[in-house]
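call fold(seq) -> tokens
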Amino acid sequence: MKSPGHLFFTLSALAALSCTPPETPKLIEYDGPLREARQVEMFYNEKDRVKVRLQTPRILEMQNGDREFPEGLDMEFFDEAGKLSSTLRANYAYYYKADNKWLGRGKVEVKNMAQNQQLNTEELFWKPDTKRIFTDKFVTIRLENEVIYGTGLDAAQDMSDYTIKNPEGEFEVKEDQ
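ret:
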């Protein structure tokens, strides 16, 4: 048989435990997207002219203003006359608002309509403020009569001029006479 003191101690311990406030669980800060939009078409205008048209199946907008395009995007660039000058397509894209920089990944393709050029790579960055595209990845550039391969590229966004850092393959070199 237990002593009355033992019973008092047990009841006192239970009473003390029941008076302890429950521990508040730690709050987990949400860092996912604030908004999601589907089947989006956006336009960027300058001086009352459409400069860029963007289409995507899905956009996720983050708290810091970044945007993720998990199902890819299609962009069309227009010249001063409003004529389609180039296109950019990617299987995945991300816009870094703080840097005003775009990233395209997966199957990335840039076409220059006027010069009949096509760039293919697995990763490409675009800076709208400088109107430049660049990558350190392997690239393929298809021209009318040749194909140029290489690793690393810096180019105008419409592919009107470009530099391949480590070119490979056979290509025509024109000499001034």
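Helices lie at 4-19.
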